[in-house]
Every structure is written in C-alpha cells, then in structure tokens.
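Morning run. Coffee first, then this:
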Amino acid sequence: MECPRGLAGVVVDQTKISSTAGAHLTYAGYPIEELAHASFEEVVFLLWHTRLPSENEIAVFRHQLVSQMVLPAETVRLLLYVAKEPQHPMSILRTTTSLLGTTNDVDHDEPPKILAKMLITVAAIIRIRANEPLLEVDPHLGVVENFLYLMTGKRPSKELARMFSTVMILHADHEFNASTFTARVVASTFADYYSCLTAAVCALKGPLHGGANERVFEMLLEIKEQGLDPREFVEEQVKQKRKIMGFGHRIYKNGDPRAAILKQIAGKLAAKTGNSEYFEIQRQLADYMLQRFNLHPNVDYYTSLIYHCLGLDKEVFTMLFAACRTVGWLAHVMEQRNENCLIRPNSEYVGPTDRHYLGEQIQKRGHA
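And here it is:
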C-alpha cells in the first residue's frame, strides 16, 4: 500500500469546526468572506459552539475574555527573565505556554481564560523584548483593541481595529493543519489544555508552517534593501533551487481565499504607514509568480507586510499567528476530547526483514 506523502488528501477524522472542501474556507458552514465582516469575539464563539451568539451572549463573552487578559504574578516574574533570553520568540512562547500550565489552575481553566492568557502572553513577550513596560488591559476596549494596545502601547483607531480583527479571524482556524492536528493528537490522550497548546506552538514554529510569514518579510527586505528587480530575484532563487516563500498551497490551487482579503488590508496599511514600496514589490512578485509558475500568494504573503506596518519586528510575526490560531486549537481540542478516542494510527514498515540476532551473533563468533 502506497501512502500519500504528508497524508495529503487523507481524511483522518470528521469535524464541525471548519472546512476547506472545494477550496473554499468555511467556519461552521459560514464562508470566510462573510465572517471577515464579523467581530473577532463572534467568530471565537462560533468556532467553539458552532453557532453565532446572541447580542447578550456576545456582550457577556467579550467581557469574559477581556477580564481574563491578566497574567498571574508568578508568570510575569518568570517571563521578565525568560523573554529576554537570546532565543527566537517562538521558543520563548513555547516555554511560556508550558509555564502557564504550572502557574494557572490547569484542571479547572477553561478555553476563554486560556485564550485570554495566550493573547496577553504574546503581547507581554513583545513588550519585554522591546524593553517597554507591560500594560494593563482597558476594560472599555474589546479583545482586538486590547491586544493591539497591549502590544504596541497605542490605542488603535476604529479602522485599524476593524482591519486587524479581520486578520485575526482569517488566522483563527484552518481545518487539520499541522499544528491543529498536533494539538488533537495530544488532546486525544486527555492531556490538559496547556499541554495541547504547547505541542501546537512547537508545530507552528517550523518555517513550512507558521514560520513562513517571517521568511516572506526577509525576502521583501532583501529585495528592497538591495534594490533588486523582483522578477530577477525569483529567477535567481529558482536557479539556486530555493523556495519562494508565501506562494502555493496544498489545498488552494487557484488562490488562497484569505490572501485576497489580506491583500486589500496590506495595501491600505502600507499606504497609511509609508510602506507602499514593500506592497509594490509584493504586487510585482505576485504577478510574476502567477505568470511564470501559475502560483498564487497564500495567507503568509500579505500577513507579513501587515504585521510590519504595525511596527513589529519580523521575529514576532509567527507569535501573532499563534495568538490568532489559539482560537482554532482550543476548538479542536474540545472537539477531540468529546470524541473520547485515542489517535493512534498504524504505519507501513518498509525496512529490512527476516533478520535474526542470535544467528548473527553465532556467525560473528564463528568468524572471530
């Protein structure tokens, strides 16, 4: 039996959370193009309950999330030391996520509290590494507004909050991607939430998954600083047999639906923040990649520029992805727990057979 590489196309389980069937992304049956206009809190509620909340439910839910965006004193004390280590921020997040499982009530913490803790953790790591003071949540602001404020120290405009809310929604879930499936495998053992999230963060850290957005901006930075022609850059990379980051997707052969929405946001933010040159490079790269290889931008392509326009260092880009994707991870952990089934697949052995240790030892002694 020949197994598809990377389990491509293999259905391993059922889910009610999200779908990429027909190369269209839906959350609990709702097209992502429509949910891009919803509030972040609405989408979180939808992914966790597979239905949209009432007006009263969303008000209560928003208050619950915002009020929990506070870290235990012990976590802060340790984070002030750990976050300054000369490691990649995703390594810091990995350690801190595990740390949350020792400084919180692991057995009783529920998804709203855990999501709030992950958001404030990412913001805190960014502030500490920038040698900026930690900030307290503003109870008058929503989750997205607070997240932006706690990261940047600036209260966002309604327009920026609206755009970033869309960015967070588009990153909230994506079926059985590598990090989500990792979280589900751990959840199937009935490990606690923090263990599941720690494993998911480890999977997201890789450059072929969440780390791609950082690599995209490194590419844009190289082209801009060296004054390269985007088309000549592509040809040189191909000549060197290097991957052009931010293009192609295993599922979306005719374009990632999230990228189309993110392109508009990236263009607006680039114009407002003096980063139009980067956006023009992206436009030329995208046009040439489509013409030359019939490859479309994926979710990482425009996200990298959006994060840069917020004034954030490229090394923290993947942490922002993790903050958003925590929503989906928690949804899948809950769903997997309800299945009450250990994930334990079989493998096809293709190594040597018919070997005998004792016979080989006797043969060796005979030649001694």
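Residues 317-339 form the longest helix (23 residues). Good start to the day.
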